Amino acid sequence: xxxxxxxxxxxxxxxxxVLPLGKxxxxxxxxxxxxxxxxxxxLIANDTYHMGMKVQKTTTVKPLVSSVxxxxxxxxxxxxxTSGQQKIYLYKxxxxxxxxxxxxxxxxxxxxxxxxxxxxxxxxxxRYVYKNSLSKLLFGILGNNNELKHRSYxxxxxxxxxxxxxxxxxxxxxxxxxxxxxQQLQLAISQALQSALQKDPHLSKEQQQVxxxxxTHDFINKLxx
Length: 225
Prior knowledge:
The chain is rod-shaped. By secondary structure, it is an alpha/beta fold. The chain has a 4-stranded mixed sheet. The chain has a 4-stranded mixed sheet with strand order 4-3-2-8. It has helices at 2-18, 25-49, 133-139, 166-176, 179-199, 205-224, and strands at 53-63, 74-80, 86-91, 101-102, 108-114, 120-130, 147-157, 162-165.
């Protein structure tokens, strides 16, 4: 609506400036010029500073399964840029999903955390929406309702998960297909268990499982470096 008002005020300004519509037509022209400037300023403020809008937050929680087929739980990522500090995660939310989907990169942040519950991905969004019907009437023609401000991904994975780059996962897949590597892994687990049992012969099955899991993690982390 403001765009239409802006056009109307500009037309009226030129009419009052050009046509002698009265002795005080300059006053009328000045008033319409001020109104046109106010409309233009409001449009700029809406486009730049989101005047007349508020931030609406939504959160979506989805289950998380391994990004690759197989028994090993893996969350994949693709390094972005030369530094590789920013990561584009590739994830699956169900086992029937053929290919992992990439996170959206626009106005995005992503991180991984360790959880003791079921693995999941938490997607939080902040979007600009109109405060009320008046704001929608004034600025609706700009089409910026529901504009994304920020989207964050939090991948909550178990301690038995591996967060690997695509190249690391490919390297791991080739290595684990080798029988010698599998034997080395079993040897590393056996040695870790023997060492732990020597220190404490009364380790429970749960504690032994933790030792085995840590030995597996250490072996695989060295393998994919």
